[in-house]
Recover the amino acids of this structure.
């Protein structure tokens, strides 16, 4: 659909500026990609399973690289590293075109002062696929620029030069990149050179170790929680514990004289405290009595009632052929998923320093640009004077796609004239998560005489996912029609079925819901693929054959068929229950990456145990197959955790539970002991990896349970009825 | 005073007899007891008080019958799969003391007391009737070979037992509930009950 | 209150106003060892696991006063790039971390496990390693724990040969 656009985008020569700086001898390559396409197409492009382009900042100079005096390359990443392995993949891509070794590349987060700020976000499984072309082009351009300078210095024709591991040689002479770059003031900017052929790749496609592996194994201080600034104080902000609370007033008397308290700050929408230590700030915070305006009577039951197909606004996102009529004898199943928490282990937090008319913000965030603008706006600063320095994220999963606590910390900092570090408590993290919204699905299907589907309809309702977020304002939602996050995975992928329809309903919830890794995919695929399994059973057909026979013949369909076959074959998929174990099958397409999974399940002490999961996925070209495997393993475990255990409740207007344990998650003992990953390459560019494997796991487990017990589980988290 | 051992002996004999007949529906155990000792009513009050404490969650949560410690007033299984382990102190590397120290932690809400551990399996009370708990308490083969005097000391002086009245706060900073009988009353009730012969009413 | 303790083999004396301050904050903010993480502050997630006299302890729930006179080991002291602990070596060989935030706690818990149970079974691992990882690295961790056990056994053999 919109897949042509990226071909037309090349690094513009005029935009490729060069300047020295950052305190080291060096080249600073500056590129700019224009965000030309209308936003609607871009965003729908992401959603409609086409890969996202790299959405960069518009007209500011960007610093991508720095050649250091010890002949290494610093790569300033506009994408954040939150565990998904992006830093490693982009290091491989840059090393390839720069002709340096992997250990000569050091990837760091680009501070917003470098200009290399992603105006969108790190998320949606787009980092590697989006940077695939521009980053390699920029790297190749820098290589050519360095070679040209070397040619001048070595007095050798540039065509006679070759480079390996950052060492340029020709005509018996050598020069390092650092030497080539030293002292250069006028750089010649070349056209984009030809990129390497896939057959010549040295690093791309290799399972190289993560570039951040050592730092993470030896405990280096790399996370937002570890950030500091000189002379720093600690802040805390009083947060309401009831849904929908608005701030009325605060009695701060008791807190004022508590040990370590430096200042209490009352704004028109919050009250905060600054103290000498985190513990003192927390204790003073607890002593502040705030009057809130809040809902008291809300409970889970009311939320479930609200979240029912037929409520709210709807839009048809897919339709082919006829709808069901009243005479049709249709099978109907309903499914539900609960409120889910992100529960990432590093709480949200920030160190902020407002110093006169400028501000410095150290933060683990998925949205550097938005955070920067929010701070600038609230503190009335020039955006240019707000420098957001991103850190490694102790888990993202969508939780950090809005980080407005940077604003609160900045206000506290301004009030005391010193840097302030402010982190959420775990209770606040749970209470003020921007949850995965609960969903309800009504799926109808009608089998024809041959036992295949003649019609299939998916009606589903969700709260906000992408809508009403910092990234996709409401005005845009109205323009787009449906919630672009909620519909992920909600499409019908068996488009050989003659008549099908998918319709998404949208209900506003009284608490914030948002992006949770894979967005709508987890719940939508759980529902859709459970229904498909039930239809296969009804038609007395093998679940794999039943699926294969109803997939159309577009390129994506062929890739879907291939992963389905590969997973079934690798797992030796069988519908027999053997030694108390059954297999369950499911498949999905997300962001143009098809994925199929087979889960082997048994029931032990009335609990569902997942022994083994076989995954076949086609993410296109695998930049780092080991990290893709890691993402598959992680998605399966995070997915089974959500599908089997996780659930938030609403009790008397409070979101609960607020601590690990009561918020039950998969532990070591619950994780499958075997995860077998098969990677296929159905296209020659890299595609989405970090979320697509979350799709099939829920239905794969539920379908195995169905075969074991005869019971169709339709509600996440899956719970066996007592009798089994 | 001299009569006391005789009373005790008598009472114990009667109790033993009652237990033997406990399943015989024709005899009312209650009536027989009524006639035995004028101390019985007091003893029963002491027993009730003592049992109100022993069956309270603060005590019962660490006397499980399934080797799994319980938590909270709803006595749910300890989160994260913690269990008795080989020595009542949890597992080899992740033991009770990985989280529980010798004092309550008011920052984390993790309770603590000296020698924090589960009561031994022989002292499992969960799911037992009050009488069964009392029997188990008195049974030297189950109670760690404790005499009555040693039991009194254990129940009225041991830090972990007395923790029940100073259980600290939970993870939300809310004070934990305490047994319905005060510590002093409990101590007195224990002493009196043993002094009156540790009679277990049959009903 | 003055508290003397040994941290990663080095004697330290710290002056802490509130003796009940969690050891976690003393290690992180007073001693500036940031490898030990804050995750929940309620001894639920295990991100703050370190060793006190060789025993795994969740330091968010361990008042600093109890550490007086004791030996504390954090991830920074478990091993370093020149001389990695078998657990760290195994974690590198299996490429375990994703976001990495929970990993120090898991490695400290695993090191404690291998001290007590040098050849752990799946059951030993399931019972003892009960920290929380959101990225879902459990699958690789289990492989790394077995590898670490092997590396540790080899190390013991080599050391005894040298002796």
């Amino acid at each position: 659909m919109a897949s042509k656009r990226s071909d037309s985008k090349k690094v513009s020569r005029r935009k490729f500026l060069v300047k020295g700086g950052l305190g080291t001898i060096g080249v600073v390559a500056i590129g700019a990609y224009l965000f030309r396409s209308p936003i609607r197409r871009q965003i729908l492009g992401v959603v409609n399973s086409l890969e996202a382009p790299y959405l960069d900042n518009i007209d500011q100079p960007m610093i991508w690289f720095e050649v250091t005096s010890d002949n290494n390359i610093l790569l300033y990443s506009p994408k954040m590293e939150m565990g998904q392995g992006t830093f490693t993949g982009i290091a491989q891509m840059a090393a390839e075109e720069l002709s340096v070794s992997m250990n000569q590349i050091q990837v760091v987060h680009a501070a917003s002062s470098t200009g290399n700020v992603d105006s969108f976000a790190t998320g949606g499984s787009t980092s590697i696929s989006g940077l695939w072309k521009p980053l390699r082009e920029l790297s190749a351009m820098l290589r050519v620029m360095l070679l040209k300078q070397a040619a001048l210095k070595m007095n050798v024709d540039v065509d006679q030069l070759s480079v390996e591991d950052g060492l340029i040689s020709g005509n018996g002479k050598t020069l390092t990149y650092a030497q080539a770059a030293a002292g250069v003031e006028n750089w010649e900017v070349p056209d984009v050179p030809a990129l390497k052929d896939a057959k010549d790749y040295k690093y791309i496609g290799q399972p190289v170790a993560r570039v951040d592996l050592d730092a993470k194994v030896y405990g280096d201080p790399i996370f937002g929680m570890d950030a500091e600034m000189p002379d720093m104080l600690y802040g805390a902000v009083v947060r309401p514990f009831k849904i929908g609370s608005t701030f009325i007033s605060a009695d701060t008397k008791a807190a004022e004289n508590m040990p370590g308290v430096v200042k209490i700050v009352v704004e028109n929408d919050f009250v905060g405290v600054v103290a000498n230590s985190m513990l003192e700030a927390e204790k003073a915070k607890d002593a502040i009595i705030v009057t809130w305006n809040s809902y008291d009577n809300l409970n889970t039951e009311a939320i479930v009632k609200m979240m029912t197909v037929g409520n709210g606004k709807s839009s048809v996102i897919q339709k082919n052929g006829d709808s069901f009529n009243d005479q049709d004898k249709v099978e109907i199943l309903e499914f539900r998923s609960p409120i889910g928490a992100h529960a990432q282990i590093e709480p949200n937090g920030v160190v902020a320093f407002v110093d006169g008319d400028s501000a410095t913000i150290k933060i683990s965030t998925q949205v550097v640009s938005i955070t920067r603008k929010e701070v600038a706006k609230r503190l009335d600063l020039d955006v240019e004077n707000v420098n957001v320095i991103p850190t490694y994220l102790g888990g993202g999963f969508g939780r950090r796609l809005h980080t407005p606590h940077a604003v609160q910390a900045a206000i506290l900092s301004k009030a005391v004239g010193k840097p302030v570090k402010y982190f959420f408590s775990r209770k606040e993290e749970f209470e003020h998560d921007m949850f995965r919204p609960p969903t309800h699905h009504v799926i109808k299907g009608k089998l024809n005489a041959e036992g295949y589907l003649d019609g299939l309809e998916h009606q589903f309702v969700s709260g906000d996912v992408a809508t009403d977020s910092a990234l996709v304002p409401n005005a845009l939602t109205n323009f787009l029609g449906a919630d672009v996050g909620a519909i992920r995975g909600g499409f019908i992928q068996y488009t050989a079925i003659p008549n099908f329809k998918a319709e998404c309903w949208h209900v506003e919830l009284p608490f914030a819901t948002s992006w949770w890794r894979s967005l709508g995919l987890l719940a939508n695929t759980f529902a859709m693929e459970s229904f498909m399994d039930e239809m296969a059973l009804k038609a007395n057909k093998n679940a794999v054959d039943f699926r294969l026979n109803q997939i159309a013949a577009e390129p994506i369909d062929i890739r879907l068929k291939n992963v389905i076959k590969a997973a079934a074959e690798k797992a030796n998929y069988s519908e027999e229950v053997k030694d108390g174990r059954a297999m369950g099958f499911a498949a999905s397409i997300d962001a143009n990456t098809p994925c199929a999974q087979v889960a082997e399940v048994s029931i032990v002490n009335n609990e569902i145990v997942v022994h083994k999961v076989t995954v076949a996925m086609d993410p296109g070209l695998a930049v780092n197959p080991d990290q893709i495997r890691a993402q598959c393993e992680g998605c399966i475990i995070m997915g089974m955790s959500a599908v089997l255990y996780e659930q938030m409740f609403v009790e008397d207007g409070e979101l609960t539970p607020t601590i690990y344990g009561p918020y039950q998650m998969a532990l070591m003992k619950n994780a499958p002991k075997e995860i077998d990953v098969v990677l296929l390459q159905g296209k020659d560019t890299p595609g989405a990896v970090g979320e697509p494997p979350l799709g099939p796991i829920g239905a794969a487990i539920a379908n195995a349970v169905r075969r074991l017990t005869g019971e169709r589980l339709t509600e996440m988290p899956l719970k066996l009825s007592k009798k089994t | 005073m001299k009569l006391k051992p005789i009373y005790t002996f008598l009472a114990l004999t009667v109790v033993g007899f009652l237990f033997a007949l406990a399943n015989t529906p024709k005899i009312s155990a209650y009536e027989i007891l009524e006639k035995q000792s004028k101390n019985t009513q007091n003893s029963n009050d002491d027993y009730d008080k003592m049992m109100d404490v022993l069956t309270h969650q603060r005590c019962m949560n660490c006397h499980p019958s399934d080797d799994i410690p319980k938590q909270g007033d709803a006595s749910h299984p300890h989160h994260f799969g913690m269990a008795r382990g080989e020595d009542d102190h949890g597992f080899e590397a992740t033991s009770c003391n990985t989280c529980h120290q010798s004092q309550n932690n008011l920052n984390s809400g993790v309770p603590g007391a000296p020698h924090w551990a589960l009561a031994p399996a022989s002292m499992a009370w969960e799911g037992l009737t009050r009488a069964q708990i009392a029997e188990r308490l008195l049974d030297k083969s189950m109670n760690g070979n404790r005499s009555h005097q040693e039991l009194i000391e254990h129940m009225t002086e041991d830090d972990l037992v007395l923790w029940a009245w100073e259980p600290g706060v939970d993870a939300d900073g809310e004070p934990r509930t305490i047994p319905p009988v005060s510590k002093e009353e409990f101590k007195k009730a224990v002493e009196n009950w043993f002094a009156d012969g540790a009679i277990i009413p049959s009903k | 209150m003055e508290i003397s303790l040994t941290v990663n083999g080095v004697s330290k004396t710290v002056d802490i106003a509130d003796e009940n301050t969690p050891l976690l904050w003393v290690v992180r903010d007073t001693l500036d060892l940031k490898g030990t993480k804050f995750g929940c502050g309620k001894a639920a997630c295990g991100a703050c696991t370190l060793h006190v006299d060789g025993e795994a302890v969740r330091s968010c729930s361990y008042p600093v006063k109890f550490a007086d006179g004791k030996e504390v080991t954090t991830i920074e002291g478990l091993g370093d790039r020149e001389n990695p602990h078998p657990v760290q070596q195994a974690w590198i060989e299996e490429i375990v971390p994703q976001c990495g935030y929970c990993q120090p706690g898991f490695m400290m818990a695993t090191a404690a496990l291998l001290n007590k149970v040098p050849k752990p079974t799946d059951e030993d691992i399931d019972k003892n390693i009960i920290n929380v990882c959101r990225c879902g690295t459990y699958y690789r961790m289990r492989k790394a724990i077995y590898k670490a056990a092997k590396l540790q056994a080899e190390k013991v053999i080599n050391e005894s040969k040298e002796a």
About this structure: The helical segments of chain C are 23-30, 75-78, 86-93, 103-116, 122-128, 138-162. Chain C has a mean pLDDT of 97. DSSP finds six helices and five strands in chain C.
